[in-house]
Amino acid sequence: MDLILLLLAAGCLFMGILGSVLPVLPGPGLSWVGLLLMYLTKTIETNWWVLSITFAIVVLITVLDYVIPSYGTKKYGGTKWGVFGTTVGLIVGLLAPIPFGVIIGPFLGAFVGELIGKATPSKALKAAWGSFMGFLASTFIQFVITAVYLGIFIKVVWDYKEQLF
């Protein structure tokens, strides 16, 4: 049973890494489920501190995933119209059945929002670029977190390898 849980955990962790760059999958959340499955084995002693801290990080990263693109829009000169457009674009992008909707949506949302707010096309494009940069920053942060979770998994399994195998 432990081997099955560890295989499922490893699968969740690798899917989590993919999910950090593919917006369709919740990367950090899947990685955390992988850690949880690892600690559900009979052999590995449950570390509630690690599970609690890593879960808090997942919650924080999930919230930041929605905040960072709006912050990027504002940082690159966007107004409340661009920030609002980014948020609407993110939601529409998530729901749209088009590839890369979650990337294109915030970019177009910020651009259109700034145009509605009477910005020049060049200023609107700059704000949209900020939204895209925010998306890239958020993706990078998620990738780092999921890679760290995989590292935790590898270290713990390595420490218990004699009892597991």
TrEMBL record:
Organism placement in taxonomy: Bacteria, Pseudomonadati, Bacteroidota, Flavobacteriia, Flavobacteriales
The keyword Aminoacyl-tRNA synthetase is assigned to this record: no
Keywords assigned: Membrane, Transmembrane, Transmembrane helix
Protein name according to UniProt: DUF456 domain-containing protein
Native organism: Pustulibacterium marinum
Keyword Lipid metabolism attributed: no
PANTHER family, sorted: DUF456 DOMAIN-CONTAINING PROTEIN, IG HYPOTHETICAL 17883
InterPro entries for the chain: DUF456
Transmembrane segments: 47-68, 88-112, 132-158
Organism domain of life: Bacteria
